[in-house]
Amino acid sequence: MRTKNGFTLMELLLVMAILALFFLVASFIFLNYYQKAKKSSFITDSRVIYRESNKIYSSEYMDGKEFNVISSDEGEKHLDIDNPNIKYCINLDEKGKVDDFKMTNGEYYLQGKVIDDISIENVVFGNFDAKFSCDYVLSNEDILEETILLIKIDSTVMKIIKALVCLFIGLLILFPFIKNKNERI
């Protein structure tokens, strides 16, 4: 009688398929937390910019300077902030209060009128960085364009998941047959 000293190819493939499925699920969980952290960071930076815009108007007004726009655009009054990747445009009323604002970091876009508009629900995902300026108004076409891009990426990921799941199920179905065949040899 012959003794078995190792693993069959089928057993190794099954273990590899299980590990691949495990790492796939783990990577999606990790990426989800990573995206939430990036979005929260953008929200935090946006709130800082909003608050600083009120402060800078007050300090400049005391020096006799008046302006209605605080922007990251060239030639405009701008804020000294830590994150140079954020583009912003804040319109102020005659009393120095924020009238409306829009901000982007290249991956997320946010617009509104009051600080409560700076929330996760109002953040739009998409690369609006190239189009961004104080004159730029986010349109439904822009959002639709970015949504279609996201759907294409998601469908590709889903195809990979389906292929891995089919491989896993196929290996599970074939495993008993191949195992029995290997034991008869």
Structure summarized in a few sentences:
The chain is an alpha+beta fold and 185 residues long.
Low-confidence stretches: none
- Fraction of residues in helices? 40-55%
End-to-end separation in angstroms reads 10 Å
What order do the SSEs take from the amino end to the carboxyl end, as H and E? HEEEEEH
**Secondary structure tally, helices:** 2
Task: Describe it.
The chain is α+β, with helices and mostly antiparallel strands and 185 residues long. The chain contains two helices and five strands; from the N terminus they run H-E-E-E-E-E-H. The chain has helices at residues 9-62, 140-184, and strands at 69-71, 87-92, 98-104, 108-112, 124-125. The protein has a five-stranded antiparallel sheet with strand order 1-2-3-4-5, sandwiched between helices. A hairpin with a 3-residue loop joins strand 3 and strand 4 (108-112). The longest helix is centred in the N-terminal third of the chain and has 54 residues, at 9-62. It starts with 8 loop residues before the first helix and ends with a helix.
What labels would you give this structure?
185 residues; 12% strand
Layout of SSEs?
Layout: H1 9-62, E1 69-71, E2 87-92, E3 98-104, E4 108-112, E5 124-125, H2 140-184
Helix pairs in contact: 1-2
